[in-house]
Specification:
alpha/beta, Rossmann fold, 3 domains, 15 helices
Length: about 475
């Protein structure tokens, strides 16, 4: 009985499994991909393929243009992308290997881990020379087309695109460096959603890349530079001929003479601070001209002048400027090298020293002209506590608010440069300043005309002054 029951159970399980297998629908075979492959026909190739050197660049770029395949958005409507190919000589792989070795060697040398026999610098120089020699042989390698090379993909662009720029950097060690004056060959494949079904175009080439001497998209800039240059020459010649050129009066400049007179009446010194710039900074150069004018008047009035400096080279130049000013004033014997002296090149130590001079000497006038940074408010606040009249000027926009609130007069931005021309009365400085004023007025007038023209709905005036990179 026991065996009979076991047999019945086994037979029942087998019957259930057979019924479930018959009831479960068979897994359908995916024939979509195969059907699509069969139904998609190779698309029509692109038309009118052409390649040429990219305009208005430094070279190392070729532009490829084509007409859309008839099956792109029309016909079979099967084109989903275009793949651009360029022919590479086999020699290119050798060049890339040497390039990679050179880049790696330079990185290891910089980190001090380059392990080679002999001098690491000599090893890197040898690799660099080998790489340079191989680059010089690239034009010859490209001339071997179609032998000893193959087409390689550059980029896949979406359907509807009709142009592609094969552009490389100027850096010869870049992986995607594109050499100039080599014969390049290109083709463009019309690609369907099945990557293996595509149609290549005809091959276009040879085409070479090279740099242009002039960017024609910036002719407007050239015209304005020429016009401004002529204006500058015109006004400089007028200034040298003795013509009185009108310069807009600036309160801070007009106050310099009054401040020097005040110091003379009070019998107290004038403190002149050139800032933290170097002798090569434009603001410091402009400050030298102002210092010359101040020193000349100080010499005439026989007032004490104090010029603490931050930079040794600035100190040397300032000493010569002050010495020349005393000679121009006819008082060379009153000049002393102690007038201009070096303090330190530590920013806040310099500020502390100058602040100490203010509180000890109690100068009647403080003049801050040049390049200033975080120390501007410290100087100006200490000068206010000392009761000095303060005249400041800088082209550092971030420091102007501190000078404006703490000083009596402030030259804002380019007014510092105007002050050097206004006080120095040098024909070159005065003529260039006058030319700048005329150019600014012209810009304002053109801007107003452009606004009116654009409001009227015309873009003709805008296009006239359009500049492209």
């Amino acid at each position: 009985m026991k065996y009979l029951l076991s047999a019945v159970i086994v037979l029942g399980l087998l019957a259930s499994a057979a019924w479930a297998q018959e009831a479960e629908p068979a897994t359908p075979v995916d024939t979509t991909a195969a059907a699509d492959t069969v139904s998609i026909e190779p698309p029509a190739p692109v038309g009118n393929l052409r390649a040429y050197d990219s305009d208005n660049d430094h070279g190392h770029a070729v532009t490829i243009e084509w007409e859309l395949s008839p099956d792109d958005g029309a016909g079979a409507n099967s084109v989903v992308a275009y793949e651009v190919f360029r022919w590479y000589p086999d020699f290119w792989d050798t060049v890339q290997q040497v390039r990679a070795d050179l880049v790696a060697a330079r990185q290891l040398r910089a980190s001090g881990t380059l392990d080679v026999e002999g001098d690491p610098d000599d090893y890197v120089k040898e690799l660099a020379a080998e790489h340079q020699e191989m680059l010089s042989r690239l034009p010859e390698a490209h001339e071997q087309y179609p032998n000893n090379g193959e087409f390689r993909s550059l980029r896949v662009v979406p359907f509807g695109a009709t142009t592609f720029e094969d552009q490389g950097p100027k850096d010869r060690l870049a992986e995607d460096f594109l050499p100039d004056y080599c014969d390049f060959y290109y083709r463009v494949d019309a690609v369907t959603k099945v990557d293996s079904i595509r149609t290549p175009s005809e091959i276009v080439g040879p085409v070479q890349s090279y740099g242009q001497w002039f960017n024609t998209g910036r002719i407007v800039v050239l015209c304005f530079v020429v016009i401004f240059g002529l204006l500058t020459i015109f006004f400089v010649q007028r200034a040298r001929a003795g013509a009185e050129l009108y310069v807009r009066p600036i309160a801070g400049i007009e106050a310099v003479d009054d401040a020097i007179g005040r110091a003379t009446e009070m019998g107290r010194p004038i403190l002149y601070v050139l800032g933290l710039g170097t002798a090569a900074d434009v603001a410091t150069i402009a400050s030298f001209t102002i210092l010359s004018r101040v020193a000349k008047q100080v010499a005439e009035y026989q007032t004490q002048l104090i010029v603490p400096t931050y930079d040794p080279i600035v100190m040397s130049v300032a000493q010569e400027v002050v010495k020349s000013a005393y000679m121009d004033a006819g008082r060379p014997d009153d000049y002393s090298e102690d007038i201009v002296y070096f303090v330190t090149q530590s920013q806040f130590a310099y500020v502390a020293a100058v602040n100490g001079v203010m509180l000890r000497e109690r100068p009647a006038t403080n003049v801050y002209m040049g390049m200033f940074h975080a120390e501007s408010l410290l100087l100006a606040e200490t000068g206010a506590i000392a009761g000095s009249i303060q005249i400041s000027g800088t082209d550092q926009i971030a420091q102007l608010p501190f000078f404006i609130v703490a000083c009596d007069y402030t030259l804002i931005g380019e007014e510092l440069y105007a002050a050097s021309a206004y006080l120095g009365r040098e024909p070159v400085l005065l003529g260039s300043l006058k030319a700048q004023d005329v150019a600014k007025a012209a810009v304002v007038i053109f801007a107003l005309i452009g606004v009116i023209w654009s409001t009227a709905g015309s873009s003709l005036f805008q296009n006239l002054f359009k500049v492209t990179d």
